[in-house]
Amino acid sequence: MGLEQALAQVDADIDAAVERLLELLRIPSISTDPAYKDDCDRAADWLVDDLTSLGFQASKRTTPGHPMVMGHAKGDGPHVMFYGHYDVQPVDPLSLWDTPPFEPALEDTPKGRVIRGRGASDDKGQLMTFVEACRAWKAVHGALPVKVSVFFEGEEESGSPSLVPFMKQNREELRADVALICDTGLFGEETPAIVTRLRGLLGEEVTITGPNKDLHSGMYGGIARNPIRVLAGIIASLHDASGRITVPGFYDGVAELPTDIAGQWGDLGFSEAEFLGEVGLGVPAGEDGRTGLEMIWSRPTCEVNGITGGYQGDGFKTVLPSVASAKISFRLVPGQDPHKLRESFRAYVQSQLPGDCTVSFQEHGASPAAEMSTDHPAFEKARAALSDEWPREAAFVGCGGSIPIAGYFKDILGMDAMLIGFGKDDDQIHSPNEKYDLSSFHKGIRSWVRVLDALSR
Amino acid sequence: MGLEQALAQVDADIDAAVERLLELLRIPSISTDPAYKDDCDRAADWLVDDLTSLGFQASKRTTPGHPMVMGHAKGDGPHVMFYGHYDVQPVDPLSLWDTPPFEPALEDTPKGRVIRGRGASDDKGQLMTFVEACRAWKAVHGALPVKVSVFFEGEEESGSPSLVPFMKQNREELRADVALICDTGLFGEETPAIVTRLRGLLGEEVTITGPNKDLHSGMYGGIARNPIRVLAGIIASLHDASGRITVPGFYDGVAELPTDIAGQWGDLGFSEAEFLGEVGLGVPAGEDGRTGLEMIWSRPTCEVNGITGGYQGDGFKTVLPSVASAKISFRLVPGQDPHKLRESFRAYVQSQLPGDCTVSFQEHGASPAAEMSTDHPAFEKARAALSDEWPREAAFVGCGGSIPIAGYFKDILGMDAMLIGFGKDDDQIHSPNEKYDLSSFHKGIRSWVRVLDALSR
């Protein structure tokens, strides 16, 4: 009865909920670029105001980086701590956006209505599904069915430098019975998912310096060390012919997937052809002998996220550059220690350097992989609640992305975390033309209404 | 007698000559960047005006690209055709310039007085040594000692797309007894040089496309093809462990250096340690078993002049990019056909492509190497004249750079070309803080006065 009323309230209020989300999406809270510092601050203020209007005791907490937002609502029953992030990815290349990234709008597409704009899916849209679910409960019942706290970060897209210190300094305030995280996706169009396995992330920037200035490639070409060639050689050497990563010790501690999980994943009917076809590809490019789901959920990787060196403008310049650099990241799986691997990686790069060049490193975040134990009763309650809202049964799945917060809740606070999200594979997060399906937003809000209700029982 | 007067006139007029050069250097005639099209035009006009003031019949000739400047002076005796270029290299990275690149000035350095600014050496300063030599002859004698024509190009730093068509369309006007080219350097501080061997150049831009848009490296990392990794692999594969280039057929037609030339070069006392030490290096990075002079003068090379892909801003972005590209150039030696090698290179890259990616190519110039025959009597006359001006005997040397015009004079017009220049290794051409020694400029002008005199005898 209480549930049905709250669901009806969600449906009745959906247009206003979209308007609120569009307001938040208009704030260009790009955390990795210092130019948007004030905008990150503005997004945090917006959330504090909105939470306050819902009766939360809400506040903005300063950090050395972008602020955190904390909110606590009174309530009975179990205590849940909801996490989301209000910062977004950069938007370049801007030229590939069909509409301005921070002028979000509803748009009709052949696949349905979408909310278009940077952060629509990752993570402002997802974050707001939970806030709107709270609003609906509050509107109908004047209170929430369980005790709810929220914790919003503003540095998720830039390595979360302030997160661990903040969590350690605010242990008591952050502790609850279970954490809820909304930063993942559905498994397919109709199947909701609870992520129980996340990859970690190690980010490194590698800069190779050869000559002490840019040289003329006619005068020096052939005798002088070219840092682009050195960098290319190192990158090429990071994988062997079978697709395995060559950094010594990289696979130490990496276990094979347990057969029961492998079996569950096999039952999901994942289509490599369909998954890759969406982005114009067709051939799984990972390690030989691994399934597509292993490649993205349970195997570690090494990717180059950016490379730069020499002349990059129009035309041609016969320069032999002084410097070349690359941003390289590793996705990690349970058993891998990011700090140890950073050292192994750096030692490996040093070992590959030819004469007449030097290397320097800049670190960009390190977080271990996370594996949830699904023993906590909340997992089965949430799975049943999600299954009631969506056409198909909810599944326990893996996620190739890195959501370090899940591991931190466990390691720092001893809390289990349930990762429930409503994104779709074609949301183009981190890419131009990011969107969030209106159905993801609407059914996402309804899903949280159901999950909160289920947890109260 | 006539010679001494002209030399004295050079000395008397040197301050005014510097002022004229500074005026030309203030025009930012960067040919590779369309934004500077009008400036290239302005530089051509400046030269036409200056030549006209010297009594040349001078004109600006339009081409599909930047204009050519032609000038003819009346005179007796042999007919020389002088070539230089008025366009300059781009200036990035601008932040590394100590003074604005197009606000040239005289500057006192521990090694003497220099003219600082983009183009000071390459090639405006060098070009003006010849113009000023003509001015001095004219001032003293009212006429030049030989028949002089000049031919200035504005696309040398951007692949000279209009040069060959222009030379073919103006064969008669361009034909003379010998060509003079001032775009090379001294051999050491005190030894003038006539270059008799130049490398050719083949420029290619290689673009690899993987997924049809930028992807999230968490979601797709491990299963999707990464074009930066593909590009790095191709670049790394272009050389084998001994430093040889792996493109099939690349060394076809490349001959070993004749023993007499190898002997002359050996006598030059070239110090690899000194040459590389100037730019912070110490280990010759070319093919195993080759001398430093071979690496820069007589062996072909492959260099990467620029590379770009993915996120390159501050911070980190876990993107798996759709596209990566590199600007790659080959320095060629006699016996190599640039057009054939372009095809071999493209076929090689295609053969190295893994699944799920495509490559596209953009061409950036192709010119063969050139080897001068020193049989023409002008070579010995010029060598003697240069030896009179400088502390040491002039040498016949090679040059690692590509000055295609020398080959074109031979191939299109059947003319020998003498490459005489006064640049120094530390002029930082194509780099920030380019300069031309005042002594190069001053003694360069005097050198041309002597060469013109010698050729008249």
From TrEMBL, chains A, B:
It holds the Pfam family M20_dimer. This is Acetylornithine deacetylase/succinyl-diaminopimelate desuccinylase-like protein. Keywords: Hydrolase, Metal-binding, Protease. It comes from Litoreibacter ponti. One of its GO terms (molecular function) is metal ion binding. InterPro entries: Cyt/Met_Dipeptidase, Peptidase_M20, Peptidase_M20_dimer. Residues 198-356 form the Peptidase M20 dimerisation domain. One of its GO terms (biological process) is proteolysis. Gene3D superfamilies: 3.30.70.360, Zn peptidases.
